[in-house]
Structures are given as structure tokens and as C-alpha cells.
């Protein structure tokens, strides 16, 4: 078994490097700082993730991605891969290196007879939802439809349909991957199956995934969905309902609670209940009657096409501004006393930090039975359990508040971890899945380089992932998203990067 290679000094992008790479491409465009599209292609979901690349490849083929990867390695040039650009860690950007931008690869092909679809790696979920809907189909995708399919899928993928059909990776049939050595391979249960195990949860650590094939399901009827806004005194009653939905029904319903500063006409911190029901309107209103009877200050619920469902959060989660994300978990039933303490901390934060009114704390109440039908050892993803995910998302405007806002998010995670320890101590988890309690897609910090961090994300799967790295990426080229080899420095254009956010 080979060992992971040690790093070498980082190289620089030169005029000759650009000229030689351009002459080797078969159709993709290579942008430099003087190109017309350069500035727009630097754009990311969070302004904190923008870095000034030395060059940007607008890739249109696997061959050109392969060529670029080999060029970067041979010249010791740092590189990053950008799909939807949502990573607040900055992993999809490069300071002075080359960005492999997949945004020109967004075709979706649907096989209605087989109920599957294949989407290129640059797609966002809006592309997939729209293409599937044309055939009366849907698959498990992100709850914000301008999120890239790559990052969400490779990190696991929770969505509104997870209660019925599991995680996005549970519905992933195959992928096409460009490896560090330039090879382009297919990985599935029948072909390179060991890599397919690793891709489902840690895929960014093995190559550039340029194609995803997903299982689809019939979705010919509209869904009941929308937002309900309630004042702070209603938090215990809203939470009581959400706690019951976590284990109720057959996975057709889901609820996301959000602490947020409401729209201008209300303009105060409150709790939002974003609800979903995959069934007839009369059934949905009966199911959500306890919430509707609380007389919400705002009610946008309606029957809508499934393709519109994943746009509900778009308005409050647009591109631009300074953002960070941190993930944690809670053990249902979530205690009202604890939730109110979190709300108080949220209120203090948005009051004290200028420009932070767009911040949120988000609690996901999905039925976890379907997700937990599969073992935490079935694939690299190790976060299956009967708990809910939490995302703490500070948003702010002034760079001088970067450290303060990121620390607030870390402090909130510590608060949730303390509550999770208390829940385990006082009764544990009824089903005993022993998930790691960390959803990597909500963790918006660069890898710290510690063994503990890698194990905290992948748990008992960590050692097997290290062996897969030795086989599929022995030089540890793909190391920006997950730490899988902290005992050795990671290769980032030959230089180890330990940046934190």
C-alpha cells in the first residue's frame, strides 16, 4: 500500500503557463484577470469566499478538466473546484491558483422509462427539479435550489423528500469522476464500487465529479408548502408541534423551524415554520391544523409544483454579503427551555452586530426512519441517527466583524453539543444508530488538520477512507474540503494550507 506524498513548494501562474494550457484545451475557456468574464466568475454565495484566482477554467469537458489537473500538478499550482459556489469555507476558490469552474456543464438528461436522470456537475438543483418535473418525476435535492448539486450530494444531501426516500446519496446510482492522475472513470455499485462507497459522503476528497445519475420518483401532484411566522411567545407551542412531526406520518411531511428577523412589515426576531406536505391540500391542512390554529402573523402556504418547493428559501439566501455556516444537531424532542435560550442568544447577536439582521438559526424536523434504514457503515457518510440537524448562519456586512461573527457561530455549536451530551446522558437515542452528530455540508470552515476533526465527521469510517485515499489519490491532491490525512500535509499546489474561517 502506498503512502500519501509530502508537499512541495507552491508554484505561480505565469504567462507561459496560461499560453500552454490554453493551447492544450479542446473547447473550454481559460480566463485570466484581464478577461471580460473574470470578475463575474469570482462571485460566490458568500463574499467571504471570494479569492482572486490566477486563472479560471470554464470547463466544458472531462478531457479539459483532466488536462488542467495534470498541468496544475506538474507546475505545483494550487487549484480549486467550483460547482455552485456555496461553500463558506472558501474551498471552491483559490488565491492565485486556478479554479476549475463547472458552471458551463449544466445539462440534464432524464430517462423517464427507467425513472432516473443524469446531471452534469455544474448543475444547480433548479436545473434538476425543472428537468425531472417535465416527466412527472422528482428526486431528493437541496432545499435551496441555487445550491450546486455536487457539494450537496457528495456531502450527503438532506431534502424535503428525505422522509420518503432517504438522503440524496441514497438515491445516487453512479458518478463520473476525473481523478488526480487524469483518468476519467465511472463509479457505481457495479464498477469501482470501493470508490463509490467513499464518494457518498466524502466525494470531494477523491476527484472532480462531473456527472451524477440519480434515482427518481413519480411526483405528478403539487405539494402543500410555505412559511408561517409567529411571535416569540408562540415558540413553545410551535416547537411542541414540530417535535411531534419528527416521528409522525410516513415521511410525507417535514418542518423546518427558523429563528430569523422577519420581513420589513413585521421587522422583529421571531420563529418561522417552513412546512411541507406531499399530498392533498385537505390532508395537509388537517396535519398542520395545530400550527394554523396559532394564528400566524404571516401565512404563505399553498399548493405549489414540487419544482417551486426548493425556492422557498431563495429570497432569504441569495448571493452576496458576508456569511458563514456551522452545523450541529439536536435530539428530539427539543426542549422548549433550551430553544428559548438559543432564541435569546440569537436576538442579542442581531441586536449587537451591525448588518446581522439576515442571520438565522435553522432546525430541521424530518422523519428519519427512511434515512436510518441504512447503516452508518454502508457508505462514507456517518451521520444517520434519529436526531435533527441545525444550521447556524450568521450574515453580516462589515469585514471588521468577520472574527466576531464566526466565533458566535462556533459558540452556538458548542451550546448545541452541550445539549446533545445532556440528551445522551439523560436517556440517549432510542434507536442507537450512533451517528457522528455532524453534517459536513453545514460546516463552513476549512479543514483544521487534526485527526480528531476527521474522525468527528466520518466516525468509524475514517480509517477506511484513509485507505481509499492511498489507492485513489495517493498524492492527497484533493484535500480542500475534508481532512482525511492530517498526519501528512495536504497538497494544495504543493503547499499545505491550514486557513481557518
SSE inventory with pairings:
Layout: H1 15-24, E1 29-31, H2 38-42, E2 55-58, H3 62-74, E3 79-82, E4 98-101, E5 108-111, E6 116-120, H4 125-133, E7 137-138, H5 149-154, H6 162-165, E8 172-178, E9 184-187, H7 193-202, E10 208-215, E11 217-218, E12 223-230, H8 235-245, E13 253-261, E14 269-277, H9 281-287, H10 289-292, E15 298-299, E16 302-304, H11 306-309, E17 322-323, E18 326-330, H12 336-352, E19 360-366, E20 388-393, E21 395-396, H13 402-426, H14 451-458, H15 462-472
- Based on CA atoms alone, the radius of gyration comes out at 22 Å
Beta-strand level of the residues, as a percent range? 15-25%
The rounded distance between the terminal residues' Cα atoms is: 35 Å
- Report the structural category: alpha+beta
Instruction: Report the principal-axis shape.
Output: globular
Q: Describe the largest sheet.
A: 8 strands, antiparallel
Q: What is the helix tally?
A: 15
* Helical percentage: 25-40%
Mean pLDDT: 91
Number of strands: 21
Residue windows where pLDDT falls under 50 for at least 5 positions: 1-8, 495-501
Characterize the structure shown.
The chain is an alpha+beta fold and 501 residues long. Helices cover 29% and strands 20% of the residues. The protein contains 15 helices and 21 strands. The protein has helices spanning 15-24, 38-42, 62-74, 125-133, 149-154, 162-165, 193-202, 235-245, 281-287, 289-292, 306-309, 336-352, 402-426, 451-458, 462-472, and strands spanning 29-31, 55-58, 79-82, 98-101, 108-111, 116-120, 137-138, 172-178, 184-187, 208-215, 217-218, 223-230, 253-261, 269-277, 298-299, 302-304, 322-323, 326-330, 360-366, 388-393, 395-396. The protein is globular, with a radius of gyration of 22 Å. The chain starts with 14 loop residues before the first helix and ends in a 29-residue tail after the last helix. Mean pLDDT is 91; it is low at 1-8 and 495-501.
